[in-house]
Design brief:
mainly alpha, Four Helix Bundle (Hemerythrin (Met), subunit A), 2 domains, two-stranded antiparallel ribbon
């Protein structure tokens, strides 16, 4: 059966692994998928299904970080989050920085790292009080705007051209991002001390997590397999350069940093920086 695995396509391998309870495959290359499949077979001899060529897509990425969340329809589903190379530091307070530590990471690595950091920040805000809550909220606000701007200017246009039914897929992602931007701005206007802030934050968190899963499932894995690595690394370099530009002191931002501005002001700075970075 190992020989059969060697001849399977990437999507077939991901589907087979998902059927056998292995998540964490959307950012993996074929050789890693083959190794994971062989390891799974060895550890599950006698119970593996003979129908290995399922061809199904899988969501997310690490086998150890699966979680269940509530969907719009009120049902739970497994989610996992890809770790194709980004190095994060949970609880370090450097959520917006850790995705940029390696010049060899591609843009999918960076966005996957953002997804993990964003979830960490949602958790930090829920647990924090006072100045700590405000600081975590500022980080989250900045990171969400940075993340969406990178996707909208660098990644979504590429996916619209390369992913099957890409224009329809990306139109749905853009609508979700627009709603998230409106919700983020509403929370910014409220402030962390508003009595409705926490409930609004939970709604934003659920929508953002759902959105991230759809991106990982329908967009990121396909781009990783069908776009040259050098091109994806080049997009990551542009994203890193844009973040550095956007973080420079500027007259239209408070002295303590651009993360303290409104979501709209942060977005303008980041998008201008992205345009400069890709010239």
């Amino acid at each position: 059966m190992a020989g059969d695995i060697d001849t399977m396509t990437v999507n077939q391998l991901r589907g087979w692994l998902k059927d056998h309870g292995v998540t964490g495959t959307s950012g993996m290359r074929k050789e890693d998928l083959v190794k994971a499949a062989v390891k799974t077979m060895r550890s599950d001899q006698g119970t593996a299904s003979p129908n290995i060529a399922t061809g199904k897509k899988s969501t997310g990425a690490t086998t150890s970080s699966a979680a269940t969340h509530k969907t719009a329809g009120g049902t739970g589903k497994k989610t996992a989050h890809a770790t194709a190379g980004p190095r994060t530091e949970a609880g370090s307070g450097r959520a917006a920085e850790t995705a940029w530590e390696s010049g060899n990471d591609d843009v999918i690595d960076l966005l996957l790292a953002h997804h993990e950091q964003i979830k960490q920040l949602f958790g930090q805000i829920a647990r924090a009080q006072g100045e700590q809550k405000q600081a975590a909220w500022q980080q989250l606000k900045h990171l969400l705007v940075l993340h969406e701007s990178i996707e909208q200017q660098l990644v979504h246009p590429l996916a619209a051209r390369r992913v099957p039914d890409g224009e329809d897929v990306i139109e749905s992602r853009l609508q979700e991002e627009q709603q998230a931007t409106e919700d983020l701005s509403r929370l910014y206007e409220m402030g962390v001390d508003h009595p409705q802030f926490d409930d609004g934050l939970i709604e934003l968190r659920d929508a953002v997590v759902e959105h991230a899963e759809l991106e990982e499932d329908e967009e990121f894995g396909y781009l990783r397999e069908n776009v040259p690595t050098e091109q994806l690394i080049g997009l990551a370099a542009a994203a890193r350069a844009a973040e550095r530009i956007a973080n420079r002191p500027h007259a239209d931002m408070p002295a303590s940093g651009p993360q303290n501005g409104s979501p709209a002001a942060i977005a303008d700075r980041v998008r201008d920086a992205l345009r400069d970075a890709v010239k």
